[in-house]
């Protein structure tokens, strides 16, 4: 399987490396940022061009790995030869691709991917296509990249993307806020890492609702007051603390 990758960011970089590791070949990297594309092309040992150049028409699949709001603008550069065209977005519709090829679909990696990752994490792929032949091609590609491949419609994928924002982006924001507080209070954030890792590890075997602990779960008013006194000099953190406490209490009241 030979691919052209359009994009040179985190997802494009990681998928390009993974594609090669699993036996595929990347023919070309294309990006608005030629400097970034050149760096990635060196890693993938392939040709390179920016969007003003010519995209290789001989690829089996064109993987569009750019920001959601840039997908439509790069489609006019994809060869109109009815080869397989996919995008890797969790939120963008499959229908964005309907005018670029008769064979198109989704290859969405439900994982936080960064250029600097050396090890390959477990990556669920959500796939979809406009016809059975394209779906079979995408499933074949995804199955070479991962053991977790699931067909998902636009609506299913968008809803999983919302959930992903909660478990990844929002939780990381909370880590960032905790690290900020530790820095300001001259305490060691690293002491919290075993707690972070243990909490995440428990999810392998238990439902998150059963894992909820803490003062909000216990309705420990005395601890609430102490915590809020400590956070008095951090208005935004205090507001976040109150919001999360109230959310936990309301959620647990449903039990």
Given helix and strand content, the structural type is alpha/beta
Q: What fraction of residues sit in β-strands?
A: 5-15%
Record the strand order, biggest sheet.
3-2-1-4-5-6-7-8
Number of strands: 8
- Choose one word for the global shape: elongated
Number of structural domains: 2
First-to-last CA distance: 51 Å
CATH topology of the largest domain: Rossmann fold
Counting DSSP H or I runs of 4 or more residues, the number of helices is 9
**CATH architecture verdict of the largest domain:** 3-Layer(aba) Sandwich
Largest β-sheet summary = 8 strands, mixed
Name of the CATH first level of the largest domain:
Alpha Beta
Describe the structure.
The longest helix is centred in the middle third of the chain and has 31 residues, at 154-184. An 8-stranded mixed sheet has the order 3-2-1-4-5-6-7-8, with helices on one face. The chain folds into 2 domains: 2-152, NAD(P)-binding Rossmann-like Domain (Rossmann fold); 157-253, N-(1-d-carboxylethyl)-l-norvaline Dehydrogenase, domain 2 (Orthogonal Bundle). It is α/β, with parallel strands linked by helices and 255 residues long. The protein has 9 helices and 8 strands. Helix content is 45%, strand content 14%.
